Amino acid sequence: MKLVKAYIRPMLLEDIYSTLRKEGHCCMTVFEGEGTGRYSDPDDQHGSLNFPAMHTHIVKIEIAAKEEDVSSIVEIIKKHGRTGRSGDGIVFVSPIEQPIRIRDGKQGADILN
């Protein structure tokens, strides 16, 4: 199993989400946040009351996926998350060592079914 984390522009979430669902990738967690980095879009940077430094609004998507689904998920995010401008985001793929479903204690990749 793998964990796909994608940091994207908020305005592109709906398209990415819809395409992922249409292609059978049903389950994800979405976080709204603020961040700054080397690739922030200088035309979209601003401060907020909580974080006065220059930064950008972002959305983080997390998807626990079977190994065979990762390429498809990443390609969808890349295709539908791209504007061609600095600050489009980044995707990380990491191994999941031990998935455990809280409800019944079941472990392994089968908990995604």
From TrEMBL:
<dbReference type="GO" id="GO:0030234">
    <property type="term" value="F:enzyme regulator activity"/>
</dbReference>
<dbReference type="GO" id="GO:0006808">
    <property type="term" value="P:regulation of nitrogen utilization"/>
</dbReference>
<dbReference type="GO" id="GO:0005524">
    <property type="term" value="F:ATP binding"/>
</dbReference>
<protein>
    <submittedName>
        <fullName>Nitrogen regulatory protein P-II family</fullName>
    </submittedName>
</protein>
<dbReference type="InterPro" id="IPR015867">
    <property type="entry name" value="N-reg_PII/ATP_PRibTrfase_C"/>
</dbReference>
<dbReference type="InterPro" id="IPR002187">
    <property type="entry name" value="N-reg_PII"/>
</dbReference>
<dbReference type="GO" id="GO:0005829">
    <property type="term" value="C:cytosol"/>
</dbReference>
<dbReference type="Pfam" id="PF00543">
    <property type="entry name" value="P-II"/>
</dbReference>
<dbReference type="InterPro" id="IPR011322">
    <property type="entry name" value="N-reg_PII-like_a/b"/>
</dbReference>
